[in-house]
């Protein structure tokens, strides 16, 4: 069975399009799909992190509106009114979470598509809606293809540019492990994953001996989701708490080829916002001489944001830090109803940023679907011109620099 965070069925003779998301708050204990019928459902699912991960958020938002339009739009309006309606619904969805650029990027591109469609005098509202739905559906397909290319590019780079990779290429007894944080796999994307996609590609090429998944407090995307994916796909994996990363790097220095992480927004200079804890891993990797790589599609590179200082970091509720939620363990085996357990002193102040920014100078390479970008010798920053050179004007449109409030 393939892990699928997003189940979408296009409209057909059997009925209108439908969308279901895997409720990731219930993973790994229960597999429950939740129907998303309109933008309010989509907004809530993203905000509550039932669906999460930069690419998945953008795709679910786009498909949410496709489903809503397919079931509620009666076509009575003009093409211009249909365009305005679509843009207004997209702008609403965009405010669900602020840090990942993919959502704002998708909203910008989809808005442009409907604006262009509506500008033709021969177009009616149905045609505008049709263009929108086709573009939203393409996102789902394109994301999987991009992730597979990221996986292949990253695996190749690791085999050619890391000590463990080069040794492994000539000596099958050499161990090669990768450390990662958060969840960047099938659950965070339309399928395959970004950083986890590179791990998958190394495993498929029989070059990976072990993946280390960091727990990723406070939301535990590592222990709940990445560990689940790795076990599901029979990839040898070890779960560590975030505080064990330094020790494992010190002990396994020669076997850990790289730390590979995903990204929510890569600024124009390469500074990268990703799950809280990523920055600490980059500092540790530099200290231990372990390569530190970011894996992300080009849609995550935000050339309108100059550096990490300009990235808005989402802050979430304190209870995510002071409480742990999960099903009770039944002594005879299995799991009972979910319960919440307090793990902190009552009344203590909490700071809960969902992401941090890793400066470009700590990053050795950014793995994209069109190749791995490295810094020019002596430079502290990245230059992404080469990976955007092949894009059509439409694809390469500059994204909005900020995604608005929560
Ligand atoms: C391919 S997912 C890339 C990032 O979105 C991922 O690393 C991450 O930080 C996800 O954070 P989350 O808060 O779970 O949405």
From TrEMBL:
<keyword id="KW-0413">Isomerase</keyword>
<dbReference type="InterPro" id="IPR027363">
    <property type="entry name" value="M1Pi_N"/>
</dbReference>
<feature type="active site" description="Proton donor">
    <location>
        <position position="264"/>
    </location>
</feature>
<dbReference type="InterPro" id="IPR000649">
    <property type="entry name" value="IF-2B-related"/>
</dbReference>
<comment type="function">
    <text>Catalyzes the interconversion of methylthioribose-1-phosphate (MTR-1-P) into methylthioribulose-1-phosphate (MTRu-1-P).</text>
</comment>
<comment type="similarity">
    <text>Belongs to the eIF-2B alpha/beta/delta subunits family. MtnA subfamily.</text>
</comment>
<feature type="site" description="Transition state stabilizer">
    <location>
        <position position="182"/>
    </location>
</feature>
<keyword id="KW-0028">Amino-acid biosynthesis</keyword>
<dbReference type="InterPro" id="IPR037171">
    <property type="entry name" value="NagB/RpiA_transferase-like"/>
</dbReference>
<comment type="pathway">
    <text>Amino-acid biosynthesis; L-methionine biosynthesis via salvage pathway; L-methionine from S-methyl-5-thio-alpha-D-ribose 1-phosphate: step 1/6.</text>
</comment>
<dbReference type="Pfam" id="PF01008">
    <property type="entry name" value="IF-2B"/>
</dbReference>
<dbReference type="InterPro" id="IPR005251">
    <property type="entry name" value="IF-M1Pi"/>
</dbReference>
<dbReference type="GO" id="GO:0046523">
    <property type="term" value="F:S-methyl-5-thioribose-1-phosphate isomerase activity"/>
</dbReference>
<dbReference type="InterPro" id="IPR042529">
    <property type="entry name" value="IF_2B-like_C"/>
</dbReference>
<protein>
    <recommendedName>
        <fullName>Methylthioribose-1-phosphate isomerase</fullName>
        <ecNumber>5.3.1.23</ecNumber>
    </recommendedName>
</protein>
<keyword id="KW-0539">Nucleus</keyword>
<keyword id="KW-0486">Methionine biosynthesis</keyword>
<dbReference type="InterPro" id="IPR011559">
    <property type="entry name" value="Initiation_fac_2B_a/b/d"/>
</dbReference>
<keyword id="KW-0963">Cytoplasm</keyword>
């Amino acid at each position: 069975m393939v892990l699928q965070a997003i189940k979408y069925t296009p409209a057909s003779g059997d009925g209108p399009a439908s969308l279901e998301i895997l409720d990731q708050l219930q993973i790994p204990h229960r597999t429950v799909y939740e129907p998303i019928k309109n933008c309010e459902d989509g907004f809530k699912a993203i905000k509550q992190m039932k669906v999460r991960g930069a690419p998945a958020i953008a795709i679910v938002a786009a498909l949410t509106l496709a489903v809503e339009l397919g079931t509620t739009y009666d076509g009575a309006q003009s093409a211009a009114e249909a365009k305005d309606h679509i843009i207004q619904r997209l702008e609403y969805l965009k405010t669900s979470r602020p840090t990942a650029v993919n959502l704002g990027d998708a909203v910008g591109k989809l808005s442009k598509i409907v604006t262009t469609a509506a500008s033709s005098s021969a177009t009616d509202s149905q045609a505008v809606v049709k263009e929108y739905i086709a573009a939203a559906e393409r996102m789902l397909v394109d994301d999987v293809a991009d992730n597979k290319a990221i996986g292949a590019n990253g695996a190749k780079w690791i085999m050619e540019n890391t000590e463990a990779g080069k040794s492994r290429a000539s000596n099958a007894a050499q161990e090669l492990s990768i450390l990662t944080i958060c969840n960047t796999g099938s659950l965070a994307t339309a399928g395959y994953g970004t950083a986890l996609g590179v791990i998958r590609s190394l495993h498929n090429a029989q070059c990976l001996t072990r993946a280390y998944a960091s727990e990723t407090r406070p939301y535990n995307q590592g222990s709940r989701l990445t560990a689940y994916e790795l076990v599901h796909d029979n990839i040898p994996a070890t779960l560590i708490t975030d505080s064990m990363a330094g020790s494992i790097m010190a002990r396994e220095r020669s076997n850990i080829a790289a730390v590979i992480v995903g990204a929510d927004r890569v600024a124009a200079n390469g500074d990268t916002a990703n799950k809280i804890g990523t920055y600490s891993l980059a500092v540790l990797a530099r200290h231990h001489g372990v390569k530190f790589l970011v894996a992300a599609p080009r849609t995550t590179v935000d050339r309108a944001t100059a550096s990490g200082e300009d990235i808005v970091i989402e802050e979430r509720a304190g209870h995510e830090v002071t409480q742990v939620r999960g099903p009770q363990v039944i002594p005879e085996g299995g799991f009972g109803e979910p319960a919440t357990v307090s793990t902190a002193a009552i009344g203590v102040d909490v700071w809960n940023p969902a992401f941090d920014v890793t400066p470009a100078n700590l990053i050795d390479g950014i793995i994209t679907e069109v190749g791995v970008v490295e810094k020019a010798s002596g430079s502290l920053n990245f230059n992404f011109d080469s990976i955007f050179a092949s894009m059509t004007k439409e694809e390469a449109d500059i994204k909005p620099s900020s995604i608005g409030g929560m």
